[in-house]
Design a protein that fits this description.
By secondary structure, this protein is of the alpha+beta class. The chain has 2 helices and 5 strands. The protein starts with a helix and ends with a helix.
Length: 110
């Protein structure tokens, strides 16, 4: 199976930040990527609500990452792909760049 690059990079960020066993957290793992991007990673086999899902009463689907851009829902991505806002600032390439920068920052702290 080919894993989506965005999902893979987001997981790499969690690892760079020292996160382990996310499925044992009581809810989603949430992280502010930069000043614009935020994420909630659900590592559980059931839908889980996150602190920012007031835009959706359904919660974050299993094994999925919910992304927000400037406080607005931007998309849902899992290992197989997903959907993400597409605009000049809020798009997959911009998010991957932000995640890569966050990884570099995290790895510089170690």
């Amino acid at each position: 199976m080919i894993v989506s690059e965005l999902f893979s990079r987001a997981c790499a960020l969690a690892i760079a930040l020292g996160m382990k066993e996310l499925n044992k957290l009581p809810g989603c793992w949430e992280h502010q990527i930069d000043e614009r991007w935020w994420m909630a990673l659900n590592a559980h086999s059931e839908r889980i609500h996150c602190s920012q899902d007031s835009h959706s009463s359904e919660g974050v689907p299993p094994f999925t990452i919910y992304f927000m851009f400037n406080g607005w829902p931007a998309g849902l991505v899992n290992a197989n792909g997903g959907s993400l806002a597409a605009g000049a600032l809020a798009n997959e390439d911009a998010l991957i760049d932000a995640i890569n920068a966050a990884i570099e920052t995290a790895e510089g702290r170690q």
